Design the sequence.
């Protein structure tokens, strides 16, 4: 009986991951990749995070879908940009730009 319960729970967990939001893309500043920046995907109560690679690429996974905010920290400069987490992988490329006294992420 415990094997059946384990398989049922494993299958339920797989469905949960399958419906998760997968968000990826590149962050550029003045046409150059933003390397080693901290990135956080804020979706509801979730805060999955990571770091951009040498090409400025990030890849994050949320357990839920919906309206989210991507936050980037580059050497103390914090910028945010809106995005939407779907049940299928979705690419969002951004430019890191200064707008007045603050930094923002502008969709490419």
Sequence:
């Amino acid at each position: 009986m415990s094997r059946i319960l384990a398989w049922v729970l494993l299958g339920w967990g797989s469905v949960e991951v399958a419906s998760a939001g997968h968000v990826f893309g590149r962050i550029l500043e003045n046409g150059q990749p933003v390397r080693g920046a901290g990135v956080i995907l804020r979706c509801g109560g979730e805060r999955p995070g990571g770091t951009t690679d040498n090409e400025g690429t990030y890849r994050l996974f949320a357990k839920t879908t919906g309206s989210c905010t991507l936050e980037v920290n580059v050497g103390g400069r914090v910028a945010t940009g809106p995005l939407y987490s779907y049940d299928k992988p979705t690419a969002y490329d951004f430019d890191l730009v200064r707008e007045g006294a603050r930094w923002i992420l502008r969709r490419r």
About this structure: The two ends are 53 Å apart (CA to CA). Residues 50 and 84 are 18 Å apart (CA to CA). Confidence is low (pLDDT under 50) at residues 1-18. The chain has one domain: 20-107.
